[in-house]
UniProtKB/TrEMBL annotation:
The organism of origin for this protein: Nostocoides veronense
Highest rank taxon of the organism: Bacteria
Protein name (Swiss-Prot/TrEMBL): GatB/YqeY domain-containing protein
Residues annotated as signal peptide: none
Length: 151
């Protein structure tokens, strides 16, 4: 599903008409993040892939905030973050499971012939290209490290 800034703006209009405050607020937040990204650096309109990266980044922020609020004993704030996360996830490609990523890591290690930690960068680059936007990069790094340390 290719999400563009224009499609998000149309969905924001729909959410405002439906008086869906959580959805409207979440879409406003994403559109603001996209605008900030567009104005940073080369000042260009973001394509669908770049918009997806911004949405993934915002989703990660919500996931981390929900965890932090839960750990701090603030379930009401965690619920708000989780509601926003659910809205954002609808715009992201289907997320991979940890087992699926492990299989990708195994296949990539075999493809590249990596034998240990010196090839971490090579394997990470190849795995990230395969899972881009569908699994957390930090967790991917952990899985690749664990696999390469085993040899």
């Amino acid at each position: 599903m290719d999400v563009t800034k224009a499609s998000l703006q149309a969905e924001l209009t729909e959410a405002m008409r439906a008086q869906d405050k959580v959805r409207a607020g979440t879409l406003r937040m994403v559109l603001t993040a996209i605008t900030v990204e567009e104005s940073a650096g080369s000042h260009h309109e973001l394509g669908a892939d770049e918009v997806a990266k911004v949405i993934a980044k915002e989703a990660k922020k919500r996931r981390e905030a929900a965890t932090a609020y839960t750990d701090a004993g603030r379930p009401e704030l965690a619920a708000v973050e989780q509601a926003e996360l659910a809205i954002l996830e609808a715009y992201l490609p289907k997320q991979l499971t940890e087992d699926e990523v492990r299989a990708i890591v195994e296949a990539t290690v075999a493809e590249t012939g990596a034998t240990g930690m010196p090839q971490l960068g090579l394997v990470m680059k190849a795995v990230q290209a395969k899972v881009a936007g569908r699994f957390d990069g930090g967790q991917v790094a952990g899985l690749v490290r664990a696999r390469l340390q085993r040899g």
